Amino acid sequence: PLTPPHIVRPDVTAPTSDAIQIAMAKHPSQRYATYGDLTMALTAARSQLLLEDLKHQQREERGHGRSWWRR
Fold first, then answer.
1. pLDDT tier at 44 (50, 70, 90 boundaries)?
2. Rounded distance between C-alpha atoms, residue 42 and residue 12, angstroms
3. What is the pLDDT of residues 27-36, one digit of tens each?
4. What are the residues whose beta carbons fall under 8 Å from the beta carbon of 14, sequence distance 6 or more?
5. Please, what's the largest Cα pairwise distance for the chain?
6. What DSSP assignment string belongs to 3-71?
């Protein structure tokens, strides 16, 4: 069995790792049916990563914006 990519490379997100595992499945019936399906899965994984980055950035900005007020 394939070691999940996010185990080998911690910088790979779980959704990306899932897409890679499906794309590399041993049996063709378990793989994506088309390149478009793979592209859609990777795009969704990237979108999730971008949303997480945006949320993290917003939390940091909120924290910095209030720090002067608490002093």
1. very high
2. 12
3. 999 999 999 9
4. 6
5. 61
6. PPHHHH-TTS-HHHHHHHHHHT-SSGGGS-SSHHHHHHHHHHHHHHHHHHHHHHHHHHHHHHHHHHHH-
CA distance 42 to 24: 14
Angle formed at CA 36 by CA 55 and CA 10, multiple of 5 degrees = 45
pTM exceeds 0.90 for this model: no
Residue 1, classed as helix, strand or coil, is coil
> What is the token pair recorded at 61?
């900005």
Residue linked to tokens 């590399």: 24
Number of other CB atoms surrounding residue 49 within 10 Å: 13
Q: Is the dihedral of CA 2, 6, 8, 9 positive or negative?
A: positive
- The tokens describing 68, both together, are 């002067």
